[in-house]
Amino acid sequence: MNLYLIRHGNTYWNTLGKIQGSRDIVLDDKGIEEAMILRNYIKNLSIDIFVSSPLQRAICTTKILNVDNLPLIIENSLSELNFGAWEGMIWNDVKVKYETYISQNTSHGYTNPPNGDTYDDAYTRISNATKKIIDMPHHNVAIITHRAVIRFMLGHLLNENLENINTFELPNTCIVKLTNNDNPQHWSFESLIL
Fold first, then answer.
1. How many domains does one find in the chain?
2. Maximum distance among all alpha carbons in the chain?
3. What is the tens place of the pLDDT at every residue in 4-27?
4. CA distance linking residue 37 with residue 70, whole number of Å
5. Which of 33, 34, 75, 80 is catalytic?
6. pLDDT digits (tens, 9 = 90+) for 124-172
7. What is the CATH number of the domain that holds 6?
8. Which of 105, 138, 149, 159 could form a disulfide with 48 if both were Cys (CB 3.0 to 4.6 A apart)?
9. 87 counts as catalytic
10. Where in the sequence is the domain holding 75, given as residue range(s)?
11. 91 known ligand binder
12. What's the CA gap between 19 and 80, in Å, rounded?
């Protein structure tokens, strides 16, 4: 099985550097263009099925990529993490305003945001969604979701600490390819396509 973990296209909030989290922000013109460029690459991957986060930025990206009208599953558990009080803020402002909070509430490379998803909740939700996907009877699965979700999926499948995974730059419409060579217990990172 091959998993193609794809980050959604650009949004206006991405351009501004704002934390979107669970907010349902749509693609901007740049994001639509990015998805259309990616579509030319995707059509050569023999995708069997698309699985998408329910947020509009992921669904719109998926619809642009899915030109052959392949099966599509909307998986609620692939929604971006809820970053609580930080949503709508810029990361640098969060680091300044919440410096003490961050130093006291970070573990596993993740800070539990005030009124947002905890590490345990996010890990459980995303791990369960990942298990559900890898149990599908498909060979090439395209998963369109969000940066934090992709990082949690990588941590789960590669048995890697989130602190190490957080060093991966995952720009909009990048693809992370994982393969298991028909061994669902052993996943390997094959490539990062920007």
1. 1
2. 50
3. 999 999 999 999 999 999 999 999
4. 19
5. 80
6. 999 999 999 999 999 999 999 999 999 999 999 998 888 888 888 899 9
7. 3.40.50.1240
8. 138
9. no
10. 2-193
11. no
12. 11
- Confirm if 22 and 81 have CB atoms less than 8 A apart: yes
Residue range 73-101: mean pLDDT, rounded? 97
Let me know how long the chain is: 194
Q: Which of 4, 8, 3, 16 is nearest to 146 (CA)?
A: 8
User: Can 80 be counted among the known catalytic residues?
Assistant: yes
Q: Are 85 and 114 in contact (CB under 8 A)?
A: yes
Burial class (CB in 10 A: 0-12, 13-18, 19+), 90: middle
What tens digit of pLDDT does each residue of 39-79 get? 999 989 999 999 999 999 999 999 999 999 999 999 999 99
Q: Any known ligand binding at 57?
A: yes
Q: Which of 8, 138, 146, 156 is catalytic?
A: 8
Please indicate, yes or no, whether the overall pTM of this predicted structure exceeds 0.70.
yes
